[in-house]
Design brief:
Keywords: Heme, Iron, Membrane, Metal-binding, Monooxygenase, Oxidoreductase, Transmembrane, Transmembrane helix. The chain folds into two domains: 1-98, no CATH class; 101-318, Cytochrome P450 (Cytochrome p450), CATH 1.10.630. The protein is 50% helix and 7% strand. The protein is mostly helical. It has a two-stranded antiparallel ribbon with strand order 1-2. A two-stranded antiparallel ribbon has the order 3-6. A two-stranded antiparallel sheet has the order 4-5. Strand 4 (337-338) and strand 5 (344-345) form a beta hairpin.
């Protein structure tokens, strides 16, 4: 995590000074029965316990405090569910109570002020967004409609791998390109990127932007949990979010302008929507929509559609068995991780992939 140790040192110093002032105040509210958890420090709560790999730190803490644990991130109490049974309580039984995510900096700066389905509060807008994605992206008829696209991209993917026969292949890059091509053609009817240098949007640049989005949407940003320190941007995350926003917005604006030009060029009442962006732009013109869709809403949904690349890639990888390269031992595998919204190895894994499902399922 960027400047993690320096940030925590500064927080500890601030907490020590603040603790002296707290000695003059008394908490007279009656004690409440709360889930077990580590004792929080003044001001910073339990942030200092998370380390550079919060998922591992939380797992270790749950071994001590139980499957339902209460920690404090700054002044905000947070419940940690560490078993399938407890997760079910949050995600199914009490889903409506916990459906809204906290308003963090990532949602403000990378999702058009909480405009996509990931960050928007639970309510009419969120439900409308969910209906749009279910009908336009995950609908079986829409998936069948784009089968020729998947077949075409699949053949191109296999051709590229065949050309590299006998050479080491960084499979993540090729799979990311394959899924990005598929998803982008479903969402925007075009790849809008090229592998050639000097093009408007390069494939590598778009992949790096998506990687940065996943990282910044999963980090522990101190300013989110200790708001009066947010202006300092101790870890530099907000600066990176703003830089990422400019890059993503440039891409999103280009896509929307292109779609609007194509729509304007169509004959009266002859325009047929081909993708998610076309549908969103048509819906934005409807005056009787439950919640008005703004241009930022359209860009946020477009952006979210492209982020489905990671989910698609993860599902694809589950269809293979993995084994070590000949001569490689388990202890030779580096399992150090880079933390973010998704966790992936710091160093690429050298593995042999073997299909474990019938070919038609791929």
């Amino acid at each position: 995590m960027v400047n993690y140790h320096e940030s925590v040192s500064a927080l500890i110093l601030i907490a020590a000074l603040a603790f002296l002032s707290r000695l003059f105040f008394f908490n007279r509210s009656p004690p409440r029965k709360l889930p077990p958890g580590p004792k929080p420090w003044p001001i910073i709560g339990n942030i200092h316990l998370l380390g550079s790999s919060p998922h591992r730190s939380l797992h270790s803490l749950s071994q001590k405090h139980g499957e339902l644990m209460l920690i404090k991130l700054g002044s905000s109490p947070s419940l940690i569910a560490s078993s399938p049974e407890m997760a079910k309580q949050f995600l199914k039984v009490h889903d409506a109570n916990f459906a809204t995510r906290p308003a963090l900096a990532a949602g403000k700066y990378t999702a058009y002020n909480y405009s996509d389905m990931t960050w928007s509060p639970y309510g009419p807008y969120w439900r409308q967004a969910r209906r749009i994605f279910l009908s336009q992206v995950f609908n079986p008829n829409r998936l069948e409609f784009f089968k020729p696209v998947r077949d075409e991209e699949g053949r191109a993917f296999l051709s590229r791998l065949h050309a590299l026969s006998g050479k080491p292949v960084l499979l993540r890059e090729h799979l990311s390109r394959f899924t990005l091509s598929n998803i982008s053609r479903m969402v925007v009817s075009n790849k809008y990127f090229s592998e050639k240098e000097g093009s408007a949007f390069e494939l590598g640049e778009l992949q790096r932007m998506l990687d940065e989005w996943f990282l910044l949407n999963g980090v522990i940003n101190v300013g989110d949990w200790i708001p009066w320190l947010s202006f300092l941007d101790l870890q530099g995350y907000v600066r990176r979010m703003k830089e990422l926003y400019k890059k993503l917005d440039r891409f999103n604006e280009h896509v929307i302008d292109d779609h609007q030009a194509r729509r304007s060029g169509a004959a009266d009442n002859k325009f047929t929507p081909k993708d998610l962006v076309d549908v969103l732009l048509l819906m934005a013109d409807k005056p009787n929509l439950e919640v008005k869709l703004t241009r930022d809403s359209v860009k946020a949904f477009l952006q979210l559609g492209l982020k489905l690349v990671r989910t698609t890639l993860a599902n694809l990888l589950h269809g293979f068995d993995l084994r070590l390269v000949e001569g490689m031992r388990p202890q030779d595998v580096c399992l150090e991780e880079l933390y973010g919204l998704t966790v992936h190895p710091k160093e690429p894994l050298q593995l042999i992939m073997e299909a474990r499902l019938p070919s038609h399922l791929y």
